[in-house]
Design brief:
The chain has 122 residues and is mainly beta. Helices cover 0% and strands 50% of the residues. The protein contains no helices and 11 strands. The strands form 2 sheets. Strands 2, 4, 5, 6, 9, 10 and 11 form a 7-stranded mixed sheet that branches. Strands 1-3-8-7 form a 4-stranded antiparallel sheet, with no helix packed on it. A hairpin with a 4-residue loop joins strand 7 and strand 8. The relative contact order is 0.32.
Amino acid sequence: VQLQASGGGLVQAGGSLRLSCAASGRTFSSYSMAWFRQAPGKEREFVAAISYMGSSVLYEDSVKGRFTISRDNAENTVYLQMNSLKPEDTAVYYCAARSTGKSSYSQNYEYWGQGTLVTVSS
C-alpha cells in the first residue's frame, strides 16, 4: 500500500489543522493505521492509531482530548484532526499502515507515508 500524507502547515498556538493520509494499492480496510511524529533532534514518537473499521482508537497521552484520529474506508483515507495546538506539537507527521492490529510501536508498521510538516508558532 502507498501512503500520501498532506495537510501540514504553519499555525499559531491554539489553532487547528487536519492532516490527511490517502492510501492506494491493496484494500485499505485491511490495515490498521497510525500517525507518528518526529520533532527536530528527537526520535519518532507515536501519536494515534485506529483499528481496521475505526471502532477502536489509541492516543499518546499528550494529545488526548486535543487530537482525533478517524478514517473513511470508502475514501481510503485516514485523518488526524489536531485542535488546541501547542508549539511542542511541531514535528513532521507520518502516517503508517499495518496489516494486523493497531499498535503504538513504529517498528510494527510495514508501510509509511512521506511525512507532512506541522509548525506551531507561539
